[in-house]
Task: structure prediction
Amino acid sequence: MRIWLSRWVCGAVEDNLERLAEETAEAAAAGARWVVFPESFLHGYTRTVDPALVRERLSEISTAHPGVVLFAGSFTEERRNRMTVWRAGRELARYDKVHLFPPNGELEIWEPGDRYVAVDLDGMRVGLVNCNDLRFPEQARALRLQARCEALVVVGWWPWRRDHVWRTLLRARAMENACWVAGCSVMASEWPGEHFAGAGCYVFDPHGEPVRTPDDRLYELDPARASGIIVDPLELAVPIGRVEVMGTSP
Result:
């Protein structure tokens, strides 16, 4: 199966909405089954867009490409940083970012979500993760052990100067949970007052090995790469609810 991770440059909202349709068509023509756009890709932190307009556009685009699953990064709706998943004009799932990032003022912009979310797609269960969520391994673990996810799709607005952190966390989540992990970060923002250089896009297989791509967008998820897992958390994880602190301070 082919997955397309957008190398998105965030500009004016009107241009972004137009390019969303153009890039989805390009990805579909390349044979992508899943097309992923990054966090806040339509408006960044400083612009606004009517959520109803976004939903109308996403429905139109996914209707035009019914064989494609569209991961619409995230947009602001009901004071939530909301990630949505679409197919054939219909919203299949929505996830509100749980772990907001205070250094970017996210606590003033949004309210945190109150649940983790997974969705069944093309015979695979996929967990939804948004940017700073990646720093909290318990979220990925819950999606793997409780929801039995076989893949995580992670969207982000992650800075290039911290690309090594983004890449390391993506790989760790894949390795420790023995699942596919795809990370799609915004490439840049070219808007007055919000110039930003973003991190890379990466896919790691269930062994934590990187999946190579010939064009920096299209990745092949080969099921053969998921075989031979040495430590399977679904079989070996031991639930422990007790933490004991021993010894006394002098």
Q: What stands out?
A: The longest strand covers residues 80-87.
